[in-house]
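Question: Hello, beginner here. Any chance you could explain the protein record under this note? Any guidance would be welcome.
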Amino acid sequence: MATVWHPGELLSCSSAYWRGCALQSAVRLGVFTELAAGSCSAAELAEKIGSEARATGLLMDGLSAMGLLLKKDDTYQNCSAAERFLVDSSPHYMGHIILHHHHLVDGWAQLDHSVRTGGPVQRRSYGAEIERESFIMGMFNLSMQIAPQIAEQVDLGGRARLLDLGGGPGTHAIHFCKNNPGLRALIFDRATTEPFARRTVARFELEERIDFVGGDFKIDPIPGGPYDVAWLSHILHSNTAEECYEIIEKSVAAMETGGLILVHDFILNNNKDGPEFPALFSLNMLLAGNGGRAYAQEEICDMLRSAGVTELRHHPFRAKNDSSIIYGIAG
């Protein structure tokens, strides 16, 4: 249903960053993780996290108003969702992607400049290692919400070797292998990603079936082929259209004839005016300055056809952020 715009809706949209920044600040300060040990007052929490007591109380009241904390008299405790998703020892922890969003805020505040110039903006740095961890493990946070469903819905019966191109921590390779006992996988991504991928694969006890090779898939040859499945998840949107054609052609060249290639991304309709998240995500790529954007269904199909892929289909899977899958058969 289309949004009905009125002054209240406009103001709600304009001030939406208040809620996001309150959540991001609480994660960065470790509020929810500290409260996992038990309820406490604002002054007690401030002492634990090294913050100022009055300001901490204002933040905790705001989080209580959002429903993330429960306040009784002068003490606060996590709600059940905060306990599950915002405590860093929880297996369902979402804090990495929330911190990644926090790292993007400074850039988004300069979007008007990027639109004027067509180029990237200078934003605050939180440190290369910190930003790398929040991004890579943030992708793990997001993928864990959908990878089990995708692995169940995508038929890889009889397939033996999967290429997870730019697979980051390997979340999708892990769940494809869990659902297909005869499948082995290779994650091909930058060498800086390897420690995160190996830890994640080991967590699921799949070291014997999932390997990692470091490299730049835009420059280096794809190792270990031929593959009978190629999985390209959130690869295209970080590249120009010309680069996307080259990446897909290179991936298909590493496949067996009859292999299955799957492109998972934020896919726009052919008019490029929706869905909303992929359309706004293109602005995120504009700020990054890498020439990427969300691509329309027909654009991706044309990239695949150009590489000799046939029998193209748009899979019925849809994530809550409107990511979806286009797939076909390598010629």
User: Anything to note?
Assistant: The radius of gyration is 22 Å. The domain at 7-86 is CATH 1.10.10.10 (Arc Repressor Mutant, subunit A).
